[in-house]
Amino acid sequence: MNKEDGLNRAIENYLDKTPGSKDFFSQAKEVMPGGVTANIKSFDPYPVIMKKGNGAYLYDLDGNEYIDYLLSYGALMHGHGHPEINKAIHNQIEEEGTSLFGTPHLLEVEMGKKIQELYPSMELLRYTNSGTEATLLANRMAYAYTGKNKIAKFEGHYHGGYDQVLLSVNPPIDEAGLPHKPNAVIESSGVDSYHQEHTIILPFNDLDATAEILSKRRDEIAAVVLEPIQGGFIPAEQSFMAGLRKVTEELDILLIFDEVKTGFRLGLGGAQSLYKIKPDITALGKVVGGGFPVGMIGGKKEVMMVSSPKASSDVFDSSQSLKSSAKEVLFHSGTYNGHPSILAAGLATIHHLEKEINHVFAITNQLKEGINKLFAKRGVAMQSIGLGSIFNVVITEQDKILNYRQLQQSNFRIRKEIDFRLLCEGIYTKPLNRYSLSTVHGKKEINRTLDAYDRVLTQVF
Which UniProt keywords apply (predicted)? Predict the structure, then answer.
């Protein structure tokens, strides 16, 4: 059986296993464009339609049970329906009488102080409703503070679904330019070419080339934004990160850490605690919401204060229309910012994680080591790349994966076949996606996963 036949057979088995998802997906396409309400949830020939979640498990429309390693792209650090999180939300509504005040409230400060304890770089902070909103606000804050109107991001890094950063996330190599001087490649229809001139693309883990680009454009670039761990699993080298911090300080360019994926998954203090580097602004999301939509940014006091409201600076204050100075203040608002129920869920998430984070790291290492041994037994070159509670299975003969372009040299076809075969074995992640683990994954789930891997690798190799 050749490689293409192997993938086709794996997909055929998937079709046989999930007829309910196939039928429902045809209905979904009558309601939503392409059958989904977020493009990331889609994959060919159709995604699994889930009906129930419990702990480390998901259940689809056909009654198939899966051990969940997607965990809503890493957001569910305690799995599905954790009782402590459910209890926290119930208690908040019962005790406070509402799920939404529309005014300042106590949990905003309680959560804020906890975040400041774990992320000392976040001297002041603001809440948003998603990681995407958090990085968007971080960029605007950089513009407002520096007076400069461009940002720099790294090739292969994702910061949300808005125009400024939907460039060179997953660019075709033949369009991507030179490795040391990447092109800005638009990744979505509807993004104006304006952003190719205002978003500068940098080469990840290449300090010399990055420093050269930043130095030449220091008067234009307000901030460098990056995922300290690209895609949640390709780490920045320590020397690169230290050098980047030094260069940005010398050039008066702000450094923004997008820790939406890495916050609480590499440690309670995120990637910045691991690298021992303080960014000027940090964006958080995912885990800190306990399974509910949340984001936040925080940073140096003098930077964050550009969003502090002043007299006559509210764009909605019609009584001040004749003397408004709203344009002097960075505008940031949102009805659901600092939502009480979500902050209650987030605090419960953090408190439980403080007790269980070492378990998550230990169980993640067991899974990684087990997968490594199964590939090695068959003489297949691969790497389980990642830190903390996130990793990815990369089938490659390269010694080390340091950036997007090196990742593109791995064998995606074989990885996809493995993923589809694992779906039929009850092991869930979206094909080609990274693995995330939770406090409710244990030895039983790891052993079952490794048994499934053993069977699948026997079929593939």
Answer: Aminotransferase, Pyridoxal phosphate, Transferase
Q: 407 phi and psi, to 5 degrees?
A: -60, -35
Catalytic residue among 286, 368, 428, 435: 286
The one-letter amino acid code at 28 reads A
Q: How many CB atoms lie within 10 A of CB 180?
A: 13
CA–CA gap between residue 157 and residue 281 (Å, rounded): 17
Instruction: Show contacts of 206-210: CB within 8 Å, 24+ apart.
Output: 206/179, 206/180, 206/240, 206/403, 207/239, 207/240, 207/243, 207/244, 207/247, 208/180, 209/179, 209/180, 209/181, 210/244, 210/247
168-177, 239-248, 324-333, 365-374, range with the lowest pLDDT: 324-333
* Sheet arrangement for strand 50-54: 50-54, 57-60, 65-68, 427-428
51 catalytic per annotation: no
| 258 has catalytic annotation | yes
pLDDT, tens digit, 9 for 90 and up, residues 394-447:
999 999 999 999 999 999 999 999 999 999 999 999 999 999 999 999 999 999
Q: Is 246 helix (H, G, I), strand (E, B) or coil?
A: helix
Predicted local confidence at residue 326, as pLDDT: 63
69, 222, 233 from 57: Cα distances, Å: 9, 44, 23
Structural domains of the chain sorted by starting position, each given as residue range(s) with its CATH number in brackets: 3-81+356-460 (3.90.1150.10), 101-315+323-338 (3.40.640.10)
In a 3-state reduction of DSSP, which class is residue 216? helix
pLDDT on residue 310: 75
158 is catalytic: yes
Mean pLDDT of the chain: 95
**Catalytic residue, candidates 119, 127, 158, 435:** 158
Chain centre to alpha carbon of residue 350: 18
Q: Which of 60, 68, 206, 258 is catalytic?
A: 258
Question: Is 1 a residue whose pLDDT tops 50?
Answer: no
| 229 φ/ψ angles, rounded to the nearest 5 degrees | -120, 105
List all residues 6 or more positions away from 180 whose beta carbon is below 8 Å from its beta carbon.
203, 206, 208, 209
- What's the average model confidence in pLDDT over 256-268? 97
Q: Please state, for a pLDDT cut of 70, what percent of the chain lies above it.
A: 96
